[in-house]
Structures are given as structure tokens and as C-alpha cells.
């Protein structure tokens, strides 16, 4: 591996113009394909294998043309204090508002609340549902403006008017603010780390090229493959983070080799052969973790995982080819100003490695490994403890800021009609096998209506064939309450008795039931996913480090960091501690996909740091250093760069904490805290402490296993050679630098 990558780096340096032109051509080709590609159609959310999805599919089959494909806006009218919406003046204002709402060119229908029993018992609140002919993505700016103006005109009458529903959602693409913040912080970190504008700019430039290629490729494939916006969002996030990090490690090793007195071409080849080997295997662990999301069986996660994995592959290829080519164009520009001056003056003696913060920290840990290990594990364990209280769900309008009309509409409906009104259950009765379908549906409705925790049941609506009925069930509790989940399980648990009595079957669906089913599916898939991903990664690390204990230690450290980060998410977003600091106004269940999403991404990134840090220790050990000395050498050469890489990733992810969407905040906070804990607690404290306690045993491998494992030479043993005489670049190259 190291020898092959050495030759690749040398070739890319020598053929730098060809390499640069090839990547420029690739970027231009995919950009053209992306800009001319047909716009992807919005795919309906699908979750195979759960009851609520099966019930929804049955509704689409038995009620053709009546599926809820069109966007909706639920407009709520609240009378001033002490008044009723049924009073003459208020009723007139409501009816005028509904008439104006119905005038929209894309509006399919509106409902009169006074005829549809959509007025609260105390008469203070009424609501109407505006249904559109197109889905939310198909709404024109004119339709959205018309809706907003109708709401404003209704408010002028003195009524409180708020609206929720998917027609109110902002369908605009990502603003790019988070990415801009991440790039800005990354630039500062790189400048501090390298002390050179060129060295700081090169990883940013190559990462942006990689992200551009990945984004345009996803855009071009979006329509034929049915990819969503979330696929490109995750690809941008991870492509930017790993693209900067991988280039960072190549450039850092190049500077180190130049400091040893090597010529630019040789230094580039050695950097790609050694640090590049770590990049390849680190990238493979990330790809395994992301592609492994497909085992969960959730189409959206599969798309996101494969799209992001593709972005990581592009980042690896860029680091191995374009980065060394760029070093060929500016061989001295990436060095520090001090080094450049010394070389101009003819002082090119190899530098003697100096003790730095990394080696001093390693020495501190090596002197007291057990206390450091116990303190780190205890701290992460304490952070992970709230995980035992984890509640999964899919936060809706109740999680939005009170400054949004959606949240105010949610609160008004809950106050006027009860907390369960915002999350009704939909029951689909398949009465094909019943002697009297209508009587069977009525019996099912009565049985469910008598269940404790049910407030009301709507009249059943039959399809044209008269063999399928649908009705709504309003719970007494809010959509995200545990009592609502218990109610759904109770209704489903009573099903065998009801079905034997009526001869008809039924299923429970609706947004609330869908969220409950998704949470249960994700929880059941988490353990198999961990086994697949961690198992494959342990095997990969076994090949890389040729050790039994190092991969197991890496996996155990990852589990500690991801559990601690999930515990931190629970503390803030579920329990509410420190929520105000992040602008989180409402706490509640954690997004159902968050645990498996966090596990997949963080595992890959955690293994990045493990490979970069420990491969340098392994390299020193293979080249003759004692175990403790190898740990110190690894930290001396890699700690500063690993810290910089972690800070860059934390900056990229933290940028999303400022988003107004609670779920985006949660993802950004979870990823940033996971990287923080893994890089600075697990890799910087637990790893050296465990290696110090294990000593020689850390690198033990049974002889029979050593014989059958392939040798990949990540540590670059085949490249060990004395420094070649320095051949400074030609004057025109220096001028270009």
C-alpha cells in the first residue's frame, strides 16, 4: 500500500498539470450535468415494514385519487378575550377570510368551520383547512404570498389568526450560512496550525473542489435516482469536513519531510505513501459507517449514507492526487516563513524534532496512565448516564420557536380543542372479508372510541366500493406523550378480539402513529447496525495495525464517546438543561433518526482520528522505538494536526446549531459534541493511557493470524531510507510560489 501510494504521489507531483486539468475537467463535466439535469420530483416519505406505512399504502390503493398529496394549511381563528368566534362580527370576519383563502389559483378547497363542527366547545377557537392542488414543493411564490396576505387581512379584524401545515414550510434550499461559518473557522485554525496562507488555503481549495464535484454529481443523479435535498446536505457537511482533514494530514507530513531535508518531489511522495495510507483506511472506515446505514431499511437514510460515502471517496481521491499536484506547483509556499527564508539563504540542514505540546501531553499521560484513564472513563460515563432516559419521537410544530405562526397555531389548537387534537390517529378498516362492511366498520369505531385515552372518533368515510373505511381518533394526550404511544399499542393490542368479532381487519396510521413506528424501528435496528459497522471496522483496523487489542480499544472508545454525546443531547434537548443558551424553546423527545444517524457519522469520524494518531505510533514502533517512546513520537508528530482537524470538524458542525429548526440544532450539537469528546477525551487521553498500560501487549498478534492477514504496510516500512539531497525548485517555480 505505502509503496503504491508513494509512486502515485511522485507521479502526481511530476504530472501536476495533467492531474490538475483532469480534476478541472471532471468538475466542469459534473457541473454541466448538474445544471442541465431535470429537477428532481419530491418523493413521498416512505418507511417500509411498519404498520402505519402499510395502512397508508392501503388507503392509496382503496381510495384512488384521494391521497393527501396536496399541500395543506390549517388556519386557526381565536376570538379576543371574553368573545366567541360565533359572535356576528367575528363570524363575518372568519367567513371573509375563508372566502379570500379560497380565491388562490392553486387552492383545491376550503372548509367552513361553522358547518364542519370545527369550533371549540367554549366557542373561542375555530379552524379551517385549506387544501391545495399541488404538494408543498409545487406551491408558487404567488400562492404563498396570497396565503400570507389573507392571514394578515384576517388579523386586521381583531382576531388572532395563525396557520400551520406543510404549506407554511419554507421550501427554500439551505442558506449556506453553516458552511460559511465552518470554512471561516477552518481557515483560521489552518492558518494558526501551519503559519502560512498557502498551507492554510490549499486544504480549503482542494476540499471545496471535492465538495463541488460531489454536490454536482448528486444534483445530476437526483432525478433518475429520486434523491432528496437531505442527501446533498449531508454530503456537503461531511465532504467539507473530511476533505479539509485529509488534505491537512498530507500537507502536514509533507512539511515534516521537507524539514528532514528531503527534496520537494521525494517529500511529496513520502507524504502520500505514509499519511496517504492513513487517509485511505480512515476514509474506508467512514465509508463503511455511512454505507452501513442501508442495513437499517429506511430509504432516506440509505440515500443519505450512500451520497455522503461518495463524497468521502471523492475527498480521499482528491487528497491522494490533487493535493500532491498542488504541492508540485508551490513546493515552498506551504512552508513557514522561517523555513522559506532559511532555504533562500541556503540553510537546508535537516531539522531535529523538538518537544512540543503533543509530546509533553503524552509524557504526562504516560507517567500516570491509570488516573487519566479512570478520570476520562468516569467523565464520559457520567455524561452517558442520561441516555437511560432517552425518548425517541419526531418533533413537529410544538418544537418550533414561539415566534413562528406554526407554533402559535399548534398552541391555539391544543388550548381550544385539547392536546391530542394536534396528533389524531387515522384508522383504516379493511372490511372486504366482513358480511356487513358498514356494520363491521361501525363496531370497530365504537370499540376504539370506548378505549381509555380516546376523546372522540369521527364518522367513518367509505370508499366507492364500500369495503374500506377511514376514521380519525383524537387522543387525550399530546402527540409526543408516552400516554399516546401507550394508547396506540393498546388499540393494536385489542385488534385480534375486534377482528374475530367483526370479520374486518384494521390498521392505525397518521403522523403520530408513523412517528411511533419509526422510533421503534430505529431502536430495533440500532444493535444490528452497530454489530455490522463496528465488526467490519474492527476487521479493517486489525489489518491496519496488526493487533488484536488496538482495534477493540478503538471500538470501545467510540462507544463511550457516542453514548456520552447522546447523553449530552438528552440533557439539553429533552431535559432542557442549558437549552436557553442554544435558543431551544421547547424540549421533548429526541428525533427518532438521531441515534443511528449520530452513530453512523461519528463512528467514521472517530476512526479517522484513531487511524491518524495510532498509525503514527505504529510507524514509530515498527521502526524500532519502544512502546512508550512510540506513543510519545505519535503525539509529537500528530497531536497538533489531529487537534486542528477536530476543531475544524467541530466548527463545521457547530455552524448548524444556530439554525432556527430544532432538529438541525440537535444534529449540529450532537455531532459537534461527539467530535469534541472523541478527539479530546478518547483519542487524546484514553488511547495513550491504555497503550501505556498495555505496553508490548498492545501490538500483540497471534502468529497464525499474522500469517493469514494481508500486509498493507500503512506505516511505510518499505519507504524507510535516508534523506536525499535537497534539489531546490527552479527559479520560475520559486517565482510562481
Give the SSE map.
Blueprint: H1 2-14, H2 16-36, H3 51-62, E1 72-78, H4 88-101, E2 107-109, E3 125-132, H5 141-155, E4 160-164, H6 177-194, H7 197-225, H8 229-259, H9 264-291, H10 299-329, H11 337-344, H12 357-367, H13 369-384, E5 392-393, H14 405-417, E6 425-430, H15 437-449, E7 454-457, E8 461-462, E9 468-475, H16 482-493, H17 495-502, E10 505-509, H18 511-545, H19 549-574, E11 590-591, H20 594-622, H21 627-654, H22 662-694, H23 703-708, H24 731-736
Parallel strand pairs: 5-11
Antiparallel strand pairs: 1-3, 1-4, 2-3, 6-9, 6-10, 7-9, 8-9
Description of the structure:
With 737 residues, the protein is α+β, with helices and mostly antiparallel strands. It has 24 helices and eleven strands. The strands form three sheets. Strands 6, 7, 8, 9 and 10 form a five-stranded antiparallel β-sheet that branches. Helix 1 (2-14) packs across helix 10, helix 7 packs antiparallel against helix 10 and helix 20 runs parallel beside helix 22 (662-694). It starts with a helix and ends with a helix.
What keywords describe this structure?
11 strands; 737 residues; alpha+beta; 4-stranded antiparallel sheet; 5-stranded antiparallel sheet
Question: Can you describe this structure in just a few lines?
Answer:
The chain is an alpha+beta fold and 737 residues long.
Low-pLDDT runs of 5+ residues are 722-737
Q: Into which percentage range does the β-strand content fall?
A: 5-15%
Return the average pLDDT rounded to an integer: 83
Q: How many strands, which pairing sense, and closed or not: the largest β-sheet?
A: 5 strands, antiparallel
Q: Report the count of strand segments.
A: 11
Rg result: 30 Å
* Cα separation of the termini: 31 Å
* Coarse structural class: alpha+beta
Helix count, DSSP H or I runs of 4 or more residues: 24
The dominant shape is elongated
> Roughly what percent helix?
55-70%
Amino acid at each position: 500500500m505505502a509503496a503504491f501510494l508513494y509512486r502515485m504521489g511522485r507521479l502526481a507531483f511530476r504530472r501536476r498539470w495533467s492531474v490538475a486539468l483532469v480534476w478541472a475537467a471532471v468538475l466542469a463535466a459534473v457541473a454541466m450535468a448538474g445544471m442541465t439535469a431535470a429537477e428532481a420530483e419530491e418523493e413521498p416519505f416512505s418507511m417500509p415494514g411498519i404498520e402505519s406505512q402499510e395502512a397508508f399504502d392501503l388507503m392509496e390503493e382503496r381510495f384512488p385519487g384521494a391521497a393527501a398529496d396536496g399541500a395543506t394549511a390549517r388556519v386557526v381563528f381565536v376570538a379576543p378575550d371574553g368573545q366567541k368566534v360565533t359572535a356576528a362580527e367575528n363570524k363575518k370576519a372568519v367567513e371573509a377570510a375563508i372566502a379570500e383563502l379560497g380565491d388562490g389559483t392553486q387552492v383545491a378547497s376550503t372548509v367552513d368551520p361553522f358547518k364542519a363542527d370545527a369550533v371549540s366547545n367554549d366557542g373561542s377557537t375555530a379552524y379551517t383547512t385549506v387544501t391545495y392542488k399541488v404538494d408543498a414543493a409545487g406551491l408558487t411564490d404567488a400562492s404563498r404570498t396570497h396565503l400570507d396576505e389573507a392571514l394578515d387581512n384576517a388579523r386586521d379584524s381583531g382576531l388572532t389568526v395563525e396557520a400551520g401545515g406543510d404549506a407554511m414550510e419554507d421550501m427554500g434550499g439551505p442558506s449556506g450560512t453553516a458552511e460559511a461559518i465552518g470554512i471561516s473557522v477552518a481557515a483560521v485554525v489552518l492558518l494558526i496550525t501551519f503559519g502560512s496562507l498557502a498551507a492554510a488555503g490549499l486544504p480549503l481549495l482542494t476540499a471545496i473542489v471535492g465538495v463541488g464535484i460531489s454536490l454536482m454529481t448528486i444534483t445530476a443523479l437526483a432525478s433518475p435516482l429520486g434523491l432528496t435535498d437531505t442527501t446533498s446536505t449531508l454530503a456537503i457537511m461531511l465532504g467539507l469536513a473530511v476533505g479539509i482533514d485529509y488534505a491537512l494530514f498530507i500537507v502536514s507530513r509533507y512539511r515534516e519531510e521537507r524539514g528532514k531535508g528531503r527534496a520537494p518531489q521525494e517529500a511529496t511522495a513520502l507524504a502520500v505513501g505514509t499519511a496517504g495510507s492513513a487517509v485511505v483506511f480512515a476514509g474506508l472506515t467512514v465509508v463503511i459507517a455511512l454505507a452501513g446505514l442501508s442495513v437499517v431499511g429506511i430509504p432516506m437514510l440509505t440515500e443519505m449514507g450512500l451520497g455522503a460515502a461518495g463524497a468521502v471517496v471523492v475527498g480521499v481521491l482528491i487528497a491522494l492526487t490533487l493535493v500532491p499536484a498542488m504541492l508540485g506547483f508551490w513546493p515552498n509556499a506551504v512552508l513557514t516563513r522561517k523555513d522559506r527564508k532559511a532555504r533562500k539563504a541556503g540553510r537546508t540542514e535537516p531539522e531535529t524534532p523538538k518537544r512540543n505540546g503533543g509530546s509533553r501531553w503524552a509524557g504526562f499521560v504516560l507517567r500516570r496512565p491509570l488516573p487519566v484513564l479512570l478520570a476520562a472513563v468516569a467523565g464520559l460515563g457520567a455524561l452517558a448516564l442520561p441516555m437511560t432516559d432517552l425518548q425517541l419521537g419526531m418533533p413537529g410544530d410544538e418544537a418550533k420557536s414561539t415566534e413562528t405562526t406554526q407554533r402559535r397555531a399548534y398552541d391555539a389548537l391544543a388550548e381550544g380543542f385539547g392536546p391530542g387534537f394536534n396528533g389524531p390517529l387515522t384508522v383504516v378498516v379493511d372490511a372486504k372479508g366482513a358480511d356487513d362492511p358498514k356494520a363491521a366498520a361501525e363496531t370497530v369505531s365504537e370499540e376504539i372510541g370506548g378505549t381509555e385515552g380516546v376523546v372522540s372518533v369521527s364518522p367513518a368515510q367509505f370508499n366507492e366500493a364500500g369495503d374500506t373505511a377511514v376514521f380519525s381518533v383524537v387522543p387525550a394526550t399530546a402527540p409526543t406523550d408516552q400516554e399516546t404511544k401507550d394508547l396506540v399499542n393498546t388499540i393494536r393490542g385489542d385488534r385480534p378480539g375486534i377482528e374475530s368479532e367483526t370479520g374486518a381487519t384494521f390498521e392505525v396510521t397518521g403522523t403520530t402513529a408513523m412517528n411511533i413506528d419509526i422510533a421503534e424501528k430505529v431502536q430495533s435496528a440500532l444493535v444490528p447496525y452497530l454489530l455490522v459497522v463496528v465488526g467490519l471496522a474492527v476487521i479493517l483496523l486489525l489489518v491496519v495495525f496488526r493487533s488484536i487489542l488496538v482495534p477493540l480499544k478503538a471500538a470501545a472508545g467510540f462507544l463511550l464517546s457516542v453514548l456520552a454525546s447522546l447523553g449530552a443531547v438528552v440533557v439539553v434537548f429533552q431535559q432542557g438543561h442549558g437549552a436557553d443558551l442554544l435558543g431551544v424553546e421547547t424540549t421533548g423527545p429526541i428525533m427518532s433518526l438521531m441515534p443511528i444517524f449520530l452513530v453512523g457519522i461519528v463512528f467514521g469520524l472517530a476512526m479517522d482520528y484513531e487511524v491518524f494518531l495510532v498509525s503514527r505510533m505504529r510507524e514509530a514502533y515498527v521502526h524500532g522505538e519502544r512502546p512508550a517512546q512510540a506513543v510519545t513520537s505519535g503525539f509529537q508528530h500528530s497531536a497538533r494536526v489531529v487537534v486542528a482537524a477536530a476543531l475544524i470538524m467541530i466548527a463545521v458542525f457547530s455552524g448548524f446549531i444556530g439554525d432556527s429548526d430544532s432538529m438541525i440544532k440537535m444534529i449540529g450539537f450532537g455531532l459537534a459534541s461527539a467530535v469534541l469528546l472523541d478527539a479530546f477525551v478518547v483519542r487524546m487521553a484514553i488511547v495513550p493511557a491504555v497503550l501505556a498500560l498495555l505496553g508490548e501487549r498492545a501490538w500483540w498478534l497471534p502468529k497464525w493470524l499474522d500469517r493469514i492477514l494481508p500486509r498493507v504496510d500503512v506505516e511505510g516500512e518499505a519507504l524507510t531510507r535516508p534523506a536525499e539531497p535537497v534539489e531546490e525548485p527552479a527559479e520560475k517555480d520559486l517565482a510562481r510560489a
